Amino acid sequence: MQVYLVGGAVRDELLGRIVKERDYVVVGATPEQLLKQGYQQVGKDFPVFLHPKTKEEYALARTERKQGQGYTGFVCEFSADVTLEDDLRRRDLTVNAIAKAHDGSLIDPYGGKQDLDNRILRHVSDAFSEDPLRILRVARFAARYHYLGFTIAEETLQLLTQMINQGELQTLTAERIWLECEKSLTDGAFAEFLNILAQLGALSAISPALACNWSDGLYQQLKNRYAYAQSQNITVQPLLFAQATNSLTADDIKAVSETIRLPNDVRDLALQLNAHQATLTSQTITAEQLLACCNQLDLWRRPERFDTILSAIEINQAAPLSNQQQLLTAIKTARAINPQQFIAQGITGAQIKTALEQARLEVFQQYF
């Protein structure tokens, strides 16, 4: 039984990047052998095991055979006879198909180290085209390593274009598309990710609303916004994703949420920013407008929503609102108004809400 470090850990170590997780491939072993050594199998039909102490993933060397459509239509085949080279051949890119032995030596049958040195992303074999998810993965890797000068090999570009033109992306679920977007947001390279998808012609397949709005100008704007967010250590995904939908209509945002299955908090912030940004950034905002905004946001029960929108606007403008402290002070004062004071005055029923609204409006009129 031989154990090798594989995939992203080897790639990032060779690039001098921080290795966040380590995956291993085990050659010449059976599930029974690993179970006897205390490994915990993940799933019933997938030969991946968790190390008894480190909980890192150890996968039996395996091959995959396409059987059906989409990115899930694969039959996994594994046995002690599957070689390391067989296992590496099923991987997507040569830079992800490098293994490292315990003595530090590299096993690199497909030229991944040379492609790393030349900053090239190249598919390992024609089997690449069997998995449409790899279109998004290549775009994500190209975006993540764009700052290092990585480009996609010409033959891989041709294969990606062919897959896209054949409608392969239509087999991906909206939930799976979001997961790739989520990973790119975590990478801090979402502007590059969207731009690469647009250049490939893939953006229109996964989100027509985003594609129709895409332009070089928006790409540059997003790069600037994300650079500001990074400078402020802002990594909250709803805040970051909302920048990409900032110039869309509410209907477009809802369409994006259907084709890319946005989590509720991501979708809701995008819609709230769309509805209230113009009001909150206006230099002539009135007390009445601010009250309407607060009511629509249900700020009295959900005060965090207002803070989140202000943060989204700050990223968008690369600076806090000039009157941000004034807004926060006014809202804090208005939120301190207690309905009990009106009840103590003998006000009842629906009139309590009316009195509360008037009192809050009068507070805002002191500031705006």
Key terms:
Beta Polymerase, domain 2; seven-stranded mixed β-sheet; alpha+beta; 368 residues; two-stranded antiparallel ribbon; single chain
Order of helices and strands: EHEHEEEEEHEEHEHEHHHHHHHHHHHHHH
Describe the biggest sheet?
Answer: 7 strands, mixed
* Spatial strand order of the main sheet: 3-4-5-2-1-8-9
Q: What's the CATH superfamily of the domain at 1-117, by name? A: Beta Polymerase, domain 2
Q: Let me know the average pLDDT.
A: 93
Measure the end-to-end span.
74 Å
- CATH topology (level 3) name of the domain at 1-117: Beta Polymerase, domain 2
The count of β-strands is 11
Uncertain segments: none
Layout of strands and helices, then pairs:
Layout: E1 2-6, H1 8-15, E2 23-27, H2 31-36, E3 40-42, E4 48-50, E5 57-60, E6 62-66, E7 74-78, H3 84-89, E8 99-100, E9 106-107, H4 112-117, E10 120-121, H5 133-144, E11 151-152, H6 154-165, H7 174-187, H8 190-200, H9 203-206, H10 208-213, H11 216-231, H12 237-244, H13 250-259, H14 264-281, H15 287-296, H16 304-317, H17 324-335, H18 340-343, H19 350-367
Parallel strand pairs: 2-5, 10-11
Antiparallel strand pairs: 1-2, 1-8, 3-4, 4-5, 6-7, 8-9
Helix pairs in contact: 5-7, 5-8, 8-11, 12-14, 12-16, 13-14, 14-16, 15-19, 17-19
Structure in words:
Keywords: ATP-binding, Magnesium, Metal-binding, Nucleotide-binding, Nucleotidyltransferase, RNA repair, RNA-binding, Transferase, tRNA processing. It comes from Pseudoalteromonas arctica. Pfam families: PolyA_pol, PolyA_pol_RNAbd. This is tRNA nucleotidyltransferase. The protein is of the alpha+beta class. Among the domains are: 117 residues, Beta Polymerase, domain 2, CATH 3.30.460.10; 94 residues, no CATH class. It has 19 helices and eleven strands. Strands 3-4-5-2-1-8-9 form a seven-stranded mixed β-sheet. Strand 6 and strand 7 form a beta hairpin. It is elongated and about 85 Å long.
